Amino acid sequence: MTGEARARFERIYTLLRERICLLDYPPGMRLREEDLAEEFDTSRTPIRRVLARLEDEGYLRSVHGVGTIVTDIDIASLEQVYRLRVELSELIGKLSPIEPDEDAKRAFAGMKTRCEALVRTPSQRAFAQLNMDFFHLLMTLTENEPLQEFSERLYYQTTRIWLKRAAGEDGTEETLASEIGFFLREVSDIAAAVACGALESVGQIRRAHVAMSFARLKERAGEEVEAGPL
Amino acid sequence: MTGEARARFERIYTLLRERICLLDYPPGMRLREEDLAEEFDTSRTPIRRVLARLEDEGYLRSVHGVGTIVTDIDIASLEQVYRLRVELSELIGKLSPIEPDEDAKRAFAGMKTRCEALVRTPSQRAFAQLNMDFFHLLMTLTENEPLQEFSERLYYQTTRIWLKRAAGEDGTEETLASEIGFFLREVSDIAAAVACGALESVGQIRRAHVAMSFARLKERAGEEVEAGPL
DNA sequence: TGGTGCTGATTTGTACACAACATCGTTGGC
DNA sequence: GCCAACGATGTTGTGTACAAATCAGCACCA
């Protein structure tokens, strides 16, 4: 696969993955190859190429005669993914870190501004988008491509589940506001570390926040078990 | 994809990946979809599904009108992959380690025996196979699936290149014997650590050996640049 | 002699028809 | 009324023909 075909593949792949992460395609949703083929004005074949990759990476599961379903993750698997993600987070500052230039520093400052605006007018959707943009900005701090790739995998797998439980339909408006507050602190801390070029600190701060984020998620899940109907 | 289709997919995928890692398909080799289809008694379609995954994971590169070529890796990319691999190696003992039972301990002891036999009658092929088996045995020490998956990716990507340069046609018989010697020490050390259930030590020993292995690789590459025809 | 364009062969990428399979409603027997 | 078998419908998996792209060889000309 090369040239134009490759470009189209990447375009569709990135778009579908984003839809999954932002919960436009929530866990359990059924996709139809033919619908996607029509949307992207092609046949099923190239679509199936994309879906195959998304399935290999664990976002989807195709079942013969039924459809391709967006996966959900049980809390046990999520814990495994999170533990690894915590470890990898720290490596941003240790493996081939890129000294941030003025543009990069401005970009982090801009993130903080967006986040402050979000605190004033909370929105689940805007939060999800900001969270994702911030992640991608973080990734520009290392030039270690395998680390980038694996971090992306872990990010997309965990964040969509986290988003669903912490700030989605399951959660209240208070939990959304609370999570945005925590996120503002993370962005502020990291922006400050970037501003003085302390990339190792960036990794450590990120690591701490990812770990805390998961701890809150588990705590909330525990409450549900106690109070919930299930 | 499910049931029988899934099983066939996994079978072909695993086999082809092993061929790539063991250098049956050396870097630069061109594969033909139709040949593979014939070998596995099916059409191009399921084969393409496998090749797509191998391409996504970086082992192959399909070029329209040319063929699918086994990839090579430049020393710079290899360095990035190795750095990450060094970090992940240590995590075996830290993320959901599984306390080895008697069978597991025997398996590690058996590896040591095989390795000692290999010292007496060196063989590039047998070394490659043993190295791979040992890796898979190591992976049984953690139940963290994402860690297993990522470790596998990094292992297969680096080992085939390492094997080619350190013990393949490029290397002399002395380097092969030397590498087998180093490997015996690694296997011995790790088997000892496993025997007393010190999984954290297993990770640290492994980390050290992976790092040293890459250091030797780079040193040898440096010599080539000085002495070689290129 | 060297270079340039063409043509045929080869190989991957795409489209489409059909097979395999799962689901659900219906119908018949009891 | 209930349950089981069956068929209709919808969806993914497979096979195959064809399109698109690359490359090597060769003829042809300056």
TrEMBL record, chains A, B:
<keyword id="KW-0805">Transcription regulation</keyword>
<dbReference type="InterPro" id="IPR036388">
    <property type="entry name" value="WH-like_DNA-bd_sf"/>
</dbReference>
<dbReference type="Pfam" id="PF07729">
    <property type="entry name" value="FCD"/>
</dbReference>
<keyword id="KW-0804">Transcription</keyword>
<dbReference type="InterPro" id="IPR011711">
    <property type="entry name" value="GntR_C"/>
</dbReference>
<dbReference type="InterPro" id="IPR008920">
    <property type="entry name" value="TF_FadR/GntR_C"/>
</dbReference>
<dbReference type="Pfam" id="PF00392">
    <property type="entry name" value="GntR"/>
</dbReference>
<feature type="domain" description="HTH gntR-type">
    <location>
        <begin position="6"/>
        <end position="73"/>
    </location>
</feature>
<keyword id="KW-0238">DNA-binding</keyword>
<dbReference type="GO" id="GO:0003700">
    <property type="term" value="F:DNA-binding transcription factor activity"/>
</dbReference>
<dbReference type="GO" id="GO:0003677">
    <property type="term" value="F:DNA binding"/>
</dbReference>
<dbReference type="InterPro" id="IPR036390">
    <property type="entry name" value="WH_DNA-bd_sf"/>
</dbReference>
<dbReference type="InterPro" id="IPR000524">
    <property type="entry name" value="Tscrpt_reg_HTH_GntR"/>
</dbReference>
<protein>
    <submittedName>
        <fullName>Transcriptional regulator, GntR family</fullName>
    </submittedName>
</protein>
